[in-house]
Each structure stands twice: as C-alpha cells, then as structure tokens.
Amino acid sequence: MTPATFWRWRRVRRDLARRAALSGRLMGKPRHPVLVGLERGARGRCPHCGQGRLFRAYLKIIPICPVCGHDNGQYPAADSPPYFTILIVGHLVVVPMLAFRFILIWPAGVLLAIVLPVVATLTLTLLPIVKGAVVGVLWALGRPTDS
User: Could you tell me the residue ranges of all domains in the chain?
Assistant: First the structure.
C-alpha cells in the first residue's frame, strides 16, 4: 500500500465515522438525540414519530401512539416533572421578586394576592410541558420501566 493510498483510506474511514456519529448510528444501534425527544415531548407529541398526541387529558399519557403505535406508557415520568416544574417556577418568580424592593414595603396580603395566582398559573401551565419533555428525554435515552 502506497502512502497516498493509506492516507486516502484513512480520510475515508474518518469521514464515515463522522457521518455515522452525525446520523446517530454508532456501532449499528440507532441513537435518538435527546433534543429531538425533548422538543417533541414538550410540544405534547409522541417522541417517536412527532405526530401523534402524547396526552389524552391534562397529565394522562396515551399508552399507545395512535399514529405510529409506539408504547409511550412504558416511560416512568412520576416524580421528576413536578420537581423540575417547581424548580423552573421558583426561578421565574422568586428570584425576580427578591431583586425588587417592593417585597419589603408592600403588605404581605397584597403580595400573596398577586404572587399566589401567578405561581399557580405558571405551575399548572408548565407541568404538562415538562412532563412531555421528561417522557421525550426518557424515550431518547431508551429507558423504559424495568417491569
């Protein structure tokens, strides 16, 4: 093998490895990007096909996707969505409140009358989005329930 042939073969091999990594196929096993699952789940769509609905009610997941037939009920999203929702709402509400001085001046009743509806609305709005995102990430990581 001549040096030119060797370097050409090495370049082709490196390009094939890059293409395999970019397409998500490493060692013959299809890999799903986490961001794709995160986006599809946050939109309330099936993380597998991106077209079927993920929820049939407020937080109730449709076990089988009506479009592609994927089993979405196998992903355990029990405790993490409320945790992440509380984390997000806390950063969106509490941190800005601490930055402003009115929190020290206004009466507690007025602050509670303003803050509690905002916190409740944000929490109830973000909870299905976060639950869908968690299901999408679990789908992308390939982590169904053990049972």
Answer: 1-31, 32-141
